[in-house]
């Protein structure tokens, strides 16, 4: 398997797909989830060469379950977790980090990320706390999540930001305008979440009405959909028109649609790793074929062209769910 530098940190190598561990929490958002299945997913990932694991203090029991899954194998893994936006004052950052270390059953975190910006706390104070944690050996590197151009530029001026975790997929390409170029210029790796657009890019849904209520709430969908909070008309017809074009390209290639979508994203310059959620060992293995697929330049261009209309209609707001944007 190809391993990549974690942004500017050449001493930390990660797999090009990462296991997103939020589903381990189960509960209201994810439904019933057995810890044994989650732990089996961790072991299957490691056995397959997937070394990168992403969780957060805000993901319920996820850190705790991941820690149990890595017991006896911690040295094989690169662990990323996140401090919540409400905990960005210096003392709160330190306390949150200690809680995460305890939950993960480890004495260091490889990548500690600011989960969302908090515009009421000076970023310089948060960065100072992160620097102190790094000096103490509690974290190896730090990064951010959901930082658009303004906040990311400030972060770059203040500290040693290794990564920015953002939504990025064939049907969510807004970061290509400013954030992705800024990351490339400054050696900041992009960690992509929702790389399959919450299942849409697997091809399992033929139209918006087939998408489960809890997933049909991004700005792709009408604000009349249950749980939607963005207040926009959406672009359901254009979205599924693009999905049909991607499905056709994948069929011509003789490859699964999901593998093609992941390969396109993996081959974008500046992308470090893709977060792929898996709730058991079989789901981990299902995503591995995408790592063996390399698309030609012509294939990449065709896929980009197939989703250009969706990119333009979504505009410059990088927040998948909210208007006004929680990113700036």
Give an overview in words:
By secondary structure, the chain is of the alpha/beta class. It has a domain at 4-199 and 266-293: TIM Barrel, CATH 3.20.20.100. Helices cover 37% and strands 16% of the residues. The chain contains 12 helices and 10 strands. The chain has helices spanning 27-30, 35-48, 62-69, 90-104, 123-135, 149-158, 179-185, 236-253, 257-266, 281-286, 297-306, 308-314; strands spanning 4-6, 9-14, 17-20, 52-54, 78-83, 109-114, 139-145, 161-167, 189-193, 271-277. The strands form 2 sheets. Strands 3-4-5-6-7-8-9-10 form an 8-stranded parallel beta barrel, surrounded by 5 helices. A two-stranded antiparallel sheet has the order 1-2. Strand 7, helix 6 (149-158) and strand 8 (161-167) form a beta-alpha-beta unit. It is globular. The two termini are 36 Å apart.
Class per helix and strand makeup:
alpha/beta
Please work out how many helical segments DSSP would assign.
12
How do the strands of the widest beta sheet line up side by side? 3-4-5-6-7-8-9-10
Query: Roughly what is the average pLDDT, rounded to an integer?
Result: 96
Shape: globular
The topology string of helices and strands comes to EEEHHEHEHEHEHEHEHHEHHH
Describe how the helices and strands are arranged:
Layout: E1 4-6, E2 9-14, E3 17-20, H1 27-30, H2 35-48, E4 52-54, H3 62-69, E5 78-83, H4 90-104, E6 109-114, H5 123-135, E7 139-145, H6 149-158, E8 161-167, H7 179-185, E9 189-193, H8 236-253, H9 257-266, E10 271-277, H10 281-286, H11 297-306, H12 308-314
Parallel strand pairs: 3-4, 3-10, 4-5, 5-6, 6-7, 7-8, 8-9, 9-10
Antiparallel strand pairs: 1-2
Helix pairs in contact: 2-3, 3-4, 4-5, 8-11
């Amino acid at each position: 398997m190809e391993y990549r530098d974690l942004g500017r940190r050449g001493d930390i190598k990660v797999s090009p797909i990462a296991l997103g561990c939020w589903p381990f929490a189960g509960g209201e958002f994810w439904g019933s989830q057995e810890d044994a299945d989650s732990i089996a997913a961790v072991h299957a990932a490691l056995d397959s060469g997937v070394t990168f694991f992403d969780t957060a203090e805000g993901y319920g029991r996820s850190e705790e379950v991941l820690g149990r899954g890595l017991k006896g194998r911690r040295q094989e893994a690169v662990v990323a977790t996140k401090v919540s936006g409400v905990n960005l004052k210096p003392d709160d950052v330190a306390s949150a980090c200690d809680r995460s270390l305890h939950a993960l059953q480890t004495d260091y975190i490889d990548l500690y990320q600011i989960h969302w910006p908090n515009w009421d706390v000076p970023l310089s104070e948060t960065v100072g706390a992160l620097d102190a944690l790094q000096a103490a050996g509690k974290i190896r590197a730090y990064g951010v999540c959901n930082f658009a151009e303004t906040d990311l530029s400030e972060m770059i001026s203040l500290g040693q930001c290794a990564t920015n975790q953002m939504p990025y997929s064939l049907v969510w390409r807004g970061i290509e305008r400013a954030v992705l170029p800024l990351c490339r210029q400054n050696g900041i790796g992009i960690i992509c979440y929702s790389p399959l657009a919450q299942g849409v890019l697997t091809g399992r849904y033929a139209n918006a009405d087939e998408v489960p209520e809890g997933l049909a709430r991004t700005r792709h969908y009408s604000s009349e959909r249950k749980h939607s909070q963005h207040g926009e008309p959406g672009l359901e017809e254009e979205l599924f028109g693009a999905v049909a074009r991607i499905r056709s390209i994948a069929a011509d290639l003789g490859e699964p649609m999901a593998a093609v979508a992941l390969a396109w994203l993996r081959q974008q310059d500046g992308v470090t790793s893709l977060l792929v959620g898996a709730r058991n060992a079989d789901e981990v293995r299902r995503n591995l074929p995408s790592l063996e697929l390399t698309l030609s330049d012509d294939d990449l261009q065709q896929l980009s062209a197939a989703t250009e209309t969706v990119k333009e209609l979504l505009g410059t707001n990088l927040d998948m769910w909210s208007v006004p944007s929680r990113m700036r």
